[in-house]
Design brief:
The protein has 11 helices and no strands. With about 350 residues, the protein is mainly α. InterPro entries: MCP_dom_sf, MCP_transmembrane, SLC25A32-like.
Length: about 350
C-alpha cells in the first residue's frame, strides 16, 4: 500500500472523527455567519447561548442538520486532499534531493514548496467536493418551524401558496435540498461560493505550512536531545495542529463568512441586502449594510470548532498512519507457509 493511499485513508478517518466531535459547533457557527440582520438579538449571543436556543426552539436534531452530507464531504475532502498532498510532496522531496545533488539546497522541502503543494492539493479538492458543502450549508442553516401557518408568519395566503409553504416546513432532507439548489440555479448552483472557497485554500495551505515547519523543528530538536529518536507524541501533534489552525483561521475568516453567505439560501423577497449575485456583490453589500464587523460574525465559535477539529484530525491521522504502517510491517515479516 502506497504512502499516498495510507495518508488519504487516514486523513478521511481522522476527518470523520473530528467532524462528529465538533459538528454542533459547526452548525451554530454557520448560522452565525449567515445571519444578515445586524439588529437581531442573535448577533450578540454567545456560542453556548445560541446552541441552547437552537435546542429549545427546534430540538437537538437541528444541531446535527446536514450531518450526513458533511461526513461524506469531510471523508471525501480529507481523503482526496491527503492523497494528493502526499503525491505532490513526494515529487517536491524528489526535486529537492535532485537539487542537493547539483549543489543547491540541503535536500529538504522549503516553506514555499510546502505552500505550493498545499495550494495544488486544496484547489483540486475544492473543485471536486464543493457541491457536497453547498448541500451541507443549506441543511445547517435551515430553520425548523413547526405549527406555524403562513398567516402566523405574516405571509399573504393565496390559492397558490399553501402547498409551497407546507413543503418548506417538512423535514429538510438531502434529496429536497438537491432539488431546491437545482431548481434555483441549475447545475452551476452546486458550485456557488467556489471562488471564495478556492481563495480559502490559503487556510489549509497556511495551516499545513505552519504545521510542517513546527513539526520539522520539533523532530530535529527531539533527534538531538534523544540521540537519534525523532518520535513525536499524540499530544504534541494535537498542540501543533491546534496552533497551526489557529493562525490560519484568524487570517482567512472573512473569506469563510462570504462563502457561507453565498452557499446559504438566497432571500429573493425584494430586500437587496439579503440577495447576493456573486462574491464581489456579497462583499460590497456586507460592507455597505453591516460594516466590517459582518465579516467576523461567529469568529469565536469558529476558532474553538476549527482548532479543536484540526487538532483531533492531525492527532488521529498520525495515529492511524502509524497503526497501518505497523500492521503492514508485521504482516511483511510473518513467515509464509507453503
Amino acid at each position: 500500500m502506497s504512502d499516498a493511499l495510507i495518508n488519504g485513508l487516514a486523513g478521511a478517518g481522522g476527518g470523520i472523527i473530528a467532524q462528529l466531535i465538533t459538528y454542533p459547533l459547526q452548525t451554530v457557527n454557520t448560522r452565525q455567519q449567515t445571519e444578515r440582520d445586524p439588529k437581531k438579538d442573535t448577533r450578540s449571543q454567545g456560542t453556548l447561548e445560541r446552541m441552547c436556543q437552537v435546542v429549545k426552539e427546534e430540538g437537538w436534531e437541528r444541531l446535527y442538520g446536514g450531518l450526513m452530507p458533511s461526513v461524506v464531504g469531510t471523508a471525501a475532502s480529507q481523503g482526496v486532499y491527503y492523497y494528493l498532498y502526499q503525491i505532490f510532496r513526494n515529487k517536491a522531496e524528489a526535486a529537492a534531493l535532485q537539487q542537493k545533488k547539483m549543489g543547491v539546497g540541503d535536500g529538504s522541502v522549503g516553506m514555499l514548496s510546502s505552500l505550493v503543494v498545499a495550494v495544488l492539493s486544496g484547489s483540486v479538492t475544492v473543485l471536486l467536493t464543493n457541491p457536497i458543502w453547498v448541500v451541507a450549508t443549506r441543511m445547517q442553516t435551515h430553520r425548523k418551524e413547526l405549527n406555524r401557518t403562513p398567516a402566523d408568519q405574516g405571509l399573504l395566503v393565496s390559492t397558490e401558496q399553501p402547498i409551497l409553504s407546507a413543503v418548506e416546513h417538512l423535514p429538510y432532507g438531502t434529496s429536497q435540498v438537491i432539488q431546491d439548489i437545482y431548481s434555483e440555479a441549475g447545475i452551476l448552483g452546486f458550485w456557488k461560493g467556489v471562488l471564495p472557497t478556492l481563495i480559502m485554500v490559503s487556510n489549509p495551505s497556511i495551516q499545513f505550512m505552519l504545521y510542517e515547519a513546527m513539526l520539522v523543528k520539533l523532530r530535529k530538536r527531539r533527534a538531538w536531545s534523544k540521540k537519534g529518536s525523532n518520535g513525536v507524541t499524540a499530544l504534541e501533534i494535537f498542540l501543533i495542529g491546534a496552533l497551526a489552525k489557529l493562525g490560519a483561521t484568524v487570517v482567512t475568516y472573512p473569506i469563510l463568512v462570504v462563502k457561507a453567505r453565498l452557499q446559504a439560501r438566497q432571500d429573493k423577497t425584494g430586500d437587496k441586502r439579503h440577495h447576493y449575485k456573486g462574491t464581489w456583490d456579497a462583499i460590497i453589500k456586507m460592507i455597505r449594510y453591516e460594516g466590517f464587523n459582518g465579516f467576523y460574525n461567529g469568529m469565536g465559535t469558529k476558532i474553538v470548532q476549527s482548532v479543536l477539529a484540526a487538532a483531533v484530525l492531525f492527532m488521529m491521522k498520525e495515529e492511524l498512519v502509524r497503526g497501518v504502517r505497523f500492521l503492514l510491517a508485521n504482516d511483511a515479516v510473518k513467515p509464509k507457509h507453503p
